[in-house]
Amino acid sequence: MNDALWDFKNPYAWMGRAARSAFPPLIICCAISGGIQGKESNSNLPETAEEQAQSAYDAYNAGASMIHVHVRNTQKLYESSDSAAEYRAVNRMIRARCPDVIINNTTGGSYGMTDSQRLACLDAAPEVASLNLGPEMYKFKAKARPEPLTHPRPALDLDGLHPATYAQINHYAREMKRRRIKPEMELYHPGMYWVIQDLEREKLIEPPYLVQFVLGTVTGSFPTPWTVMSLLQELPPNSIFEVIGTGAYQLPLNTLAILLGGHVRVGMEDNVYYKKGQLLASNAQAVERIVRIARELNREIATPAQAREILGLSSTPSQP
User: Fold this and answer.
1) What's the CATH number where 249 sits?
2) Quick check: helix, strand or coil at residue 122?
3) Domain span including residue 170
4) Alpha carbons 227 and 233: distance in angstroms, whole number
5) Cys-Cys crosslink for 117: which of 113, 124, 233, 313, Cβ 3.0 to 4.6 Å?
6) What is the DSSP string of 130-168?
7) Is residue 146 part of a domain?
8) pLDDT tens figures, 120-145
9) What are the backbone angles phi and psi of residue 285, rounded to the nearest 5°?
10) In whole angstroms, what is the distance from residue 130 CA to residue 206 CA?
11) Pair 172, 107: CB distance under 8 Å
């Protein structure tokens, strides 16, 4: 689907596509759980393998063509797993329910993980994996996890750094390339475009590039329309862009991405609320809303087969 690759910053290209309702089908990625907050933040957030597989299935039926997975540590459900076997088990359950969905595993993991722990998920045959493009500081309070929740713990004051050097990022990309996994390059601010250029020079990434703007984190770019427009100016040729807005910024920034011809990520990793004061009932509820908005804005929803073609993935789904 070569028509999905175009110059997003070219006003004439945008006007032509808008006038003809000719934007590419919208890829909806659903990040079903994340690696930090759990049922203490929203009782509907999936934690166990069965819950994650069922949530993925419901999101897939609602219109998601890609599922982003943080498998949970079975001994500490409030943290991401560092076990390839645990990732493989969940990926297999998702594949059994969703035969053609794109499986996207995280290498972000949870706070404090080593590189080898973060890379364990690559041995579970995902087709896409997240690739952070630089270091990120974090400072926040994690809610207490009271009984009767499984694996209760007190509230945590987290103040740390997700480390990343050029060598580390290249190592992650090299491991993905060796396994024929497409990196979903997570870009938190414009300086990370230098890292994409380095990955290109090292021939560690291949077009079409999948660049995900992650906006609204503690040390990322501000979650505003002006930020998105600015980031688009530096997007490399032959790229697909996807937008994450964290928390309350998810809906407005997803809608902006739809209008600009990009793609979106929704789900409880990024926002546990449906609207102010109302928790999400499910990941599917978030997908259903963005599907409705996209259709009102004349964007077709990408099927998994269309999403695979747009992203340059194999038409044959992986078998974990």
Assistant:
1) 3.20.20.70
2) helix
3) 2-311
4) 10
5) 113
6) EEE-S-EEEEEEEPPB-TTSSS-B--EEEEEEE---HHH
7) yes
8) 999 999 999 999 999 999 898 999 99
9) -65, -40
10) 15
11) yes
